[in-house]
Design goal:
By secondary structure, the protein is of the alpha/beta class. It contains 7 helices and 7 strands.
Length: 149
């Protein structure tokens, strides 16, 4: 399976790193920000560095959308997995042309309200995962996987 792992650096990347026992068994490509923690954690991995900041930044949304088209066409993933944040949005919405499946894992620390990225990616997500039972009431048909920390 060809995985495309898309996330912001920091805590979002840390959450995907918790799944290393699973993703290390597959061909994979990462999309994240060129920050000190991401460079260190992804040393030796195949990475595309996304444009940031992404939150409410239309110019970087356009840049990341163009980048997503290129990455999706060049890498041809079978599955896109993300923990957010906004960098995931163009990848989830543009994947339909390639019929790539998507899995979104809602972040650990948002229990009472939905995240903006969760709301934007939900309609383009095949499997929406949450870490707390309280999050299930925020996202209908989500699947509880428990906390990853």
């Amino acid at each position: 399976m060809r995985l495309l792992l898309v996330c912001s650096s920091g805590g979002h990347l840390a959450q995907l790193m918790c799944l290393k026992g699973w993703w290390e068994k597959h061909d994979r490509h990462w999309v994240t920000f060129d920050t000190e923690d991401a460079v260190a954690k992804l040393a030796g991995e195949d990475v595309t560095w996304a444009h940031h900041p992404t939150t409410r930044n239309a110019a970087n949304l356009a840049r990341n959308s163009a980048q997503a088209r290129k990455v999706l066409a060049g890498y041809r993933p079978d599955l896109i997995v993300s923990t957010g944040a906004a960098v995931a949005v163009p990848y989830f919405w543009l994947r339909e042309r390639r019929r790539t499946s998507t899995v979104y894992l809602e972040v650990y620390d948002r229990i009472q309200t939905r995240t903006l990225t969760g709301r934007l990616c939900r309609p383009a997500t095949d499997l929406f995962l949450v870490q707390w039972a309280e999050q299930q009431r925020l996202y209908r048909s989500s699947v509880l996987v428990g906390e990853l920390w």
